[in-house]
Amino acid sequence: MAVWTKEDLERIGEAEEIQVAPLRRDGTPRRPVTIWIVRVGDDLYVRSYRGAEAAWYRAARASGAGKLLAGGLERDVAFHPEADPGVNDQIDEAYRTKYRRYLDSYVPPMLTPTARSTTLKVVPS
């Protein structure tokens, strides 16, 4: 299994926004969508602001793979549902910290049970 390099973790983890392009059934990437990403230790996580109905999220779950563009990098990635519910509290804190200037607007929806249920771990492939 591939692992993130230190440089990848720093560049991706520090990016304000990233783009993800989950793969279609035929293996081609969908149109990139801009989303937030957070780092917890040496792991990267994304969530769907709009819950499980968001098209990018449904595609990421269906294919489990895609492309990530962030910090001048483009990487092939896999999307894995986060199996450890205990890490969600750490991810919540990472969203609060990284996006603190949005604490009164965009962050609260990212911390709801609906968004938490869409937590995906992003790993290099």
Proportion of strand residues: 25-35%
CATH T-level topology: Pnp Oxidase, Chain A
Helical run tally: 5
* Residues in helix, %: 25-40%
Structural class: alpha+beta
CATH class: Mainly Beta
CATH architecture: Roll
Largest sheet: 7 strands, antiparallel
Distance between the termini: 7 Å
User: What is the N-to-C order of secondary-structure elements (H for helix, E for strand)?
Assistant: HEEEEHEEHHHE
Q: What is the molecular shape?
A: globular
The fourth-level CATH homologous superfamily is Electron Transport, Fmn-binding Protein, Chain A
Q: Give the overall average pLDDT.
A: 95
Rg: 13 Å
Strand order of the largest sheet: 2-1-5-6-7-4-3
Uncertain parts: none
Number of strands: 7
When the domains are counted, the total is 1
Lay out the secondary structure.
Layout: H1 6-14, E1 18-22, E2 33-35, E3 38-40, E4 43-46, H2 55-63, E5 65-70, E6 73-81, H3 87-98, H4 107-110, H5 113-116, E7 120-124
Antiparallel strand pairs: 1-2, 1-5, 3-4, 4-7, 5-6, 6-7
